Amino acid sequence: MEIFGKLIDNDASLASDRAAMLDILYSNIPRSMLAVILNATLFSALMWNSVPHTRLLTLVSVMVVLPLMRMWDSRLYHEDRGRCTIEAWQQRYTMGVLGTALIWSMVTPVLFFAADWPGRLIIGMVLVATAAGAILSLAANLQLALLYLFMLVVPYTVAQFIQFNFQCAVIGATTLLYTVIAASGTRAYHRVLARSLHNEKMHRQKSDALASTNAALNRQTGLQQEALSQLRKTANSLLRRRGKNEIGDDENGFDRLTRVIANLVRETERLDWDLERDLEAIYQHIMISKTDVDGRITYVNDLYCKTSGYDRSELIGKTHQVVNSGYHDKKFYADLWQTLKSGKAWRGELRNRTRHGAIYWVSTTIVPVKNEVGEVTRLISINTDITLQKAIQEEARNSRRFLQSLTESMGEGVYALDQWGYCTFLNPKAEQLLGWSPMELSIMPMHDAIHYEDEEGNHLPADSCKVMKAMKRGEAYASDDQIFISKEGRRIPVSLISTPMLEGGEVVGSVTVFQDITQRKEDEARLNAAVSAAKAANQAKSTFLANMSHEIRTPLNAILGMNHLALQQRPEPKLRSYLEKAQKASNTLLGLINGLLDFSKIEAGKMELDRHDFLLHDMLDDLASVIGHQASSKGLELLFDVAPDTPDALHGDSLRLRQVLLNLCNNAIKFTEQGKV
């Protein structure tokens, strides 16, 4: 600290002087800061009607916060000054002083411009009073005192001068004059104090020289040497535990060893404090319980109580049977206690029950604590709640059981591959069809075992296999014409669907469902043979019909011709009637024969319509003459109901239309028992 160095030499022999000066400075802090807080309160009262309340309270709060912090720092110094070095306490004190001056130098101009004339005068008086009290307490450090004085007063003085009026100029000049006078007085007081400290320093140096001479004489005694040796051993033992350099044989000064041990003790205390904080953080996330050797609970942390639902008073003195759910048998606990009594730690999972009956799982480690002779004196149980993990595991097991039941009951074979093509799963149906066990297929690529030939029996490399190529592309693949080879060498035609398994967009394997379609292939072959036979039979039928119709039409045309010639001879009416009916019946028969030929043409795709003009009533009369006797023989009345708007002259294939109507009428007469058609 440069500021303190101007007054107090940094020589190690004067460390006590510097400590004494710090005592004076830190002892003055509470009184000085109470004065600052009082002045801030006075400011707020004076400025209450001149400055907006929110702004005023904000400024006053800023003025008060740092004094409160400095008072807290003074308390820390007097309660535990050994926690920091003298240099560190000097630095903290200097920063506090400068911070206070800086805040006041910033706040007072703001209040100055917001206040009226009396308020500004009061602000100046308060600043002068504050500066007068502060520089006396800081006189031991001249630079710090002068810096504080000017930082406190100069901004107010500048604010007075920039008002450009006579009253403010007088106040500013007066304040500046006071500052110069106060600085001069502080310098004089500092010189007096410096001379006093110098004399004290010389006295201390002489005393230290005498003490050093006396210590040198004492070190010559054997008792002192033994004490120093033991002290050095103790210090070195502590230093080794902390991984620090040990004190050599030449460093046998009692003061040196004392300081080392004092520092080590402080460090140990700090480490103990850190360890305690760490343990508190750990205790918030794990359940801790302690028991005696008989299992009676002596301690439980808050999380244990919260999880179990019991108050601490309900658990202390009881055993862990309080939370026992009855899930574990007697042998389980016998093995647990056997492990602990042997002095070993026990690790496992426990299923417990809360006070309200809810089940929870914990991952537990129980550690036996031994005394100096190796006897177990108490047990510490460290528990982590794993209820959620157990629920997830149970859900996963249920899912696996469901999938296993599903795949085992399927009529199709199912197998899974990893990304290298090795089998990782094979359901019973797949084992039955392929003849391989999962263990056998786990040591060889699945393709090399069952899919090494194509449909024609040629060798199929893995890099040419469509199933493997689709998996590597991350695509699904389906096919009805693949061949698997069983372990016995039987070729099995299969229908399959292969789906890739992806993780993070990367292919990690595939699942394939396949079905033996040997029976289906055989059924298809038989069906194809039956279709071919049906086509041949149909062709024979068409040939037969064509031949038959040709053979029948030849004599029928002769009959029609002779009958036509007979009608040309103008026979008697009765004979004419017979001949005309015979002519119509022959035409009908000829139409039937033509119909058979039409069926053949339809099947061959060669049917053509004979479009021409004809009269509807002639067709109906001809139809009535053909089927009239059938209707009368069953006692049915034959009626033709033609819509009034139906034209009589039509254009189309009269022969096909007549055939359709004839078929309809024949069916109607056939299935009608009485009434009319």
Automatic annotation (TrEMBL):
Enzyme Commission code(s) on record: 2.7.13.3
Keywords: Membrane, Phosphoprotein, Transmembrane, Transmembrane helix, Two-component regulatory system
One Gene Ontology term of the molecular function aspect: phosphorelay sensor kinase activity
InterPro entries: HATPase_C_sf (IPR036890), His_kinase_dom (IPR005467), HisK_dim/P_dom (IPR003661), HisK_dim/P_sf (IPR036097), PAC (IPR001610), PAS (IPR000014), PAS-assoc_C (IPR000700), PAS-like_dom_sf (IPR035965)
PROSITE patterns: HIS_KIN, PAC, PAS
Gene Ontology biological-process entries: regulation of DNA-templated transcription
Occurrences of domain Histidine kinase (ranges): 547-677
Reaction equations catalysed: ATP + protein L-histidine = ADP + protein N-phospho-L-histidine
Domain PAS: 292-319, 399-441
PANTHER family: HYBRID SIGNAL TRANSDUCTION HISTIDINE KINASE J
Name of the protein: histidine kinase
